[in-house]
Write a structure and sequence with these properties.
Bound molecules: adenosine-5'-diphosphate, magnesium ion
Radius of gyration of chain B: 19 Å
Largest sheet of chain A: none
Oligomer: heterodimer
Largest interface: A-B, 22 and 30 residues
Helix content of chain B: 25-40%
Radius of gyration of chain A: 27 Å
Number of strands of chain A: 0
Distance between the termini of chain B: 33 Å
Order of helices and strands of chain B: EEEHEEHEHHHHHEHEHEHEHH
Low-confidence stretches of chain A: 1-15
Shape of chain B: globular
CATH topology of one domain in chain B: Rossmann fold
Strand order of the largest sheet of chain B: 6-7-8-3-9-10
Shape of chain A: globular
CATH superfamily of the largest domain in chain A: MetI-like
Number of strands of chain B: 10
Chain lengths: 314, 279
């Protein structure tokens, strides 16, 4: 807004310089420039409004159609033996929780460790570090279906082609999550003032202790919000899960073995493989979509609030 | 007795020679001030005294620094161990933001993964804060964040944190440059008390401060004379390896008891600097 104001202010300022010598056409050109500026600003504002329209309409659709099955049964039962109305998504919710949890277990420690290496240990301008950074960039661009194929081939190599499991899904999602964690952690670690590290070293602390007890705690809020953003991004991934954890109608608590339902795949199957009572399938798909969006929204909100809440507490 | 003995010290950043051929003895239980125009290598020299200089990429030295007769740069000497004996307070107060006042004071202990009983920790915190003249102001809010204190209090917290480690020497790099006159006075008062127990070395760009608190003062300057000195050295040593960068290195121009240096500078550069003709 201030930028806008500045732009608008420039022509007016020019009017203050002696205009006596200037002819009318200059003034006209200036006021035309002013109008042009305003029109352009309005167009940009329009674009800003335009992006809100699909978002609001999407939310409206999901909420209005999803509410149909937001009931107790939906959250307490699976689809085991259900062919028509009724049934629920508990198995998919549990599956998504387990797969996401395992993904975090893999990608958070490795991601933070890699970021610590890049910011704290790698010498500035180190070849190896720029290699790692490049690889992370490449990883960011891996299509999720390819991550799924990779996880699939890795596990099927050892356990045979029919192997499906939650842990394989977690591996695929970790590949997608890792670059997010590394990048965001690296960014916040770079924001930790160098002074603090020096203060730690000057107290006679080892470098790794300073990282562990000074640098990481100072960066924690930012790290958490980066991780939450990453989770929000992968929790809706469908393609790799279709490949490696598959469909399941019944509850499977064991992530190491067997097909495991998940919310995105649940939505897909309800929508795609409708039974006779199509409406019941539609309703379940929309309700699962609503749950998924609510989770993402909560995660995004938590990512926003985490830094402030953690700082406020201390 | 001399606490620190600096011999033929050259400090480099990569190939750049920042401080050249410093020889000086720093007596114990006294305050030694480093003065000189900015960029003359005061901070660099100070940081060689606790091996913080090498924490900077490319930071290295030649020569010797001995603490109580023991070379800090001898082979097998752990820089981390050196920093436990030679503490440091920085220009900008830097309490750990994720820690309370209490935790900040015992940070040195915790960061070394040493176990300490609750009672010992309480005592250490009180003793260190008293030594830093901060106890009366903060004893009722030890669990609040250190970052919430005023600038002067934060700097005294950093001093408390440094003394809690029980070092022999405390180095301070322009500790008052960001403080108001009242806080500055409090720190100066504190320094005079600290020298009863510790050897204090302070870098200051404030000549009056050096005159007020220090027992001896060293004046540094990065001038062409440093080149000439190096060239003479080369001639006598036949050592062609001494590098010559594009800027002259800082050198120790004059080092004397503070009264003497301020009232009777022997060197023209010192006199010019003290009379405000440059810097
Ligand atoms: N990290 C660094 N890398 C390279 N050169 C440095 C670095 N820090 C300081 N210098 C240079 O070393 C010289 C001495 O700096 P410094 O010790 O900070 O001076 P002072 O503390 O007296 O102002 C200056 O020329 C400065 O530019
Ligand atoms: Mg300095």
């Amino acid at each position: 807004m201030t930028q806008l104001d500045n732009q608008l202010a420039i022509p007016e300022l020019q009017l203050d310089v002696p205009v006596v010598h200037e002819d009318q056409s200059v003034l006209k050109a200036q006021s035309r420039a002013l109008i042009k500026d305003k029109v352009i600003a309005a167009l940009f504002a329009l674009a800003a409004v335009a992006i809100a329209i699909p978002l609001i309409s999407l939310l409206w659709t999901v909420v209005s159609r999803g509410l149909a099955r937001i009931d107790a049964e939906f959250f307490t039962s699976s689809m085991k033996g259900v062919v028509g109305a009724g049934g629920g998504a508990l198995h998919a919710i549990v599956g998504t929780l387990e797969i996401t949890g395992l993904t975090l277990l893999v990608s958070v420690p490795i991601g933070i460790a890699a970021a610590v290496f890049l910011t704290e240990y790698a010498a500035p301008g180190s070849r190896f570090a720029s290699c790692v950074r490049f690889l992370v960039d490449v990883m960011t661009g891996i299509p999720s279906i390819v991550a799924g194929l990779f996880a699939y081939s890795l596990f099927s190599l050892v356990l045979g082609p029919a192997y499906r499991s939650g842990i394989a899904a977690a591996l695929a999602l970790s590949l997608l999550m890792l670059p997010v964690v590394i990048r965001s952690t690296e960014e916040v670690l770079l924001l930790v003032p160098h002074d603090l590290r020096e203060a730690g070293w000057a107290l006679g602390a080892e470098k790794h202790t300073v990282i562990w007890k000074v640098v990481l705690p100072a960066a924690l809020p930012g790290v958490i919000s980066g991780v939450l953003n990453g989770v929000a991004r992968i929790i809706g991934e469908t393609a790799p899960l279709l490949l490696v954890s598959g469909f399941a109608d019944a509850m499977n608590y064991n992530p190491l073995e067997g097909r495991m339902a998940s919310l995105p795949v649940y939505i897909y199957t309800q929508w795609q493989m409708k039974g006779l009572d199509a409406q019941a399938y539609d309703d379940r798909a929309w309700s699962a979509a609503l749950v998924l969006i609510a989770v993402v929204a909560v995660l995004a909100l938590a990512a926003r609030l985490a830094p402030r809440l953690l700082k406020g507490k201390k | 007795m001399n606490e620190l003995e600096i011999k033929d010290l050259n400090a480099y950043y990569g190939d750049f020679l920042a401080v050249s051929q410093v020889n000086m003895d720093i007596p114990d239980k006294s305050i030694t001030a480093f003065i000189g125009p900015s960029g003359c290598g005061k901070s660099t020299l100070l940081r060689t005294l606790n091996r913080m200089h090498e924490a900077v990429p490319g930071g290295r030295i030649t020569g010797e620094v001995a603490l109580e007769g023991q070379d800090l740069y001898g082979s097998g000497v752990d820089p981390v161990g050196v920093r436990r004996k030679v503490g440091m307070v920085f220009q900008k107060a830097n309490p750990f933001p994720s820690m309370s006042i209490y935790e900040n004071v015992i940070a040195g202990v915790r960061l070394r993964n040493k176990r300490i009983s609750r009672k010992d920790a309480d005592e250490l915190v009180e003793r260190s804060l008293r030594q830093a003249n901060l106890w009366d102001e903060v004893h009722d809010r030890l669990q609040t964040p250190g970052g919430a204190l005023s600038g002067g209090q934060q700097q005294r917290l950093c001093i408390a944190r440094a003394v809690a480690v029980e070092p022999k020497v405390i180095l301070l790099d322009e500790p008052c440059s960001a403080l108001d006159p009242v806080s500055t006075l409090a720190i100066e008062q504190l320094l005079l008390e600290l020298k009863e127990r510790y050897t204090v070395v302070i870098v200051t760009h404030n000549m009056q401060q050096a005159a007020r608190v220090s027992d001896q003062t060293a004046f540094f300057h990065a001038d062409a004379e440093a080149w000439a000195e190096l060239t003479r050295l080369e001639a006598t040593l036949g050592d062609k390896s001494l590098p010559q960068g594009t800027r002259p290195p800082g050198r120790l121009v004059e080092y004397a008891p503070t009264d003497e240096l301020f009232n009777n500078p022997r060197n023209k550069a010192t006199a010019d600097y003290l009379s405000g003709r440059f810097g």
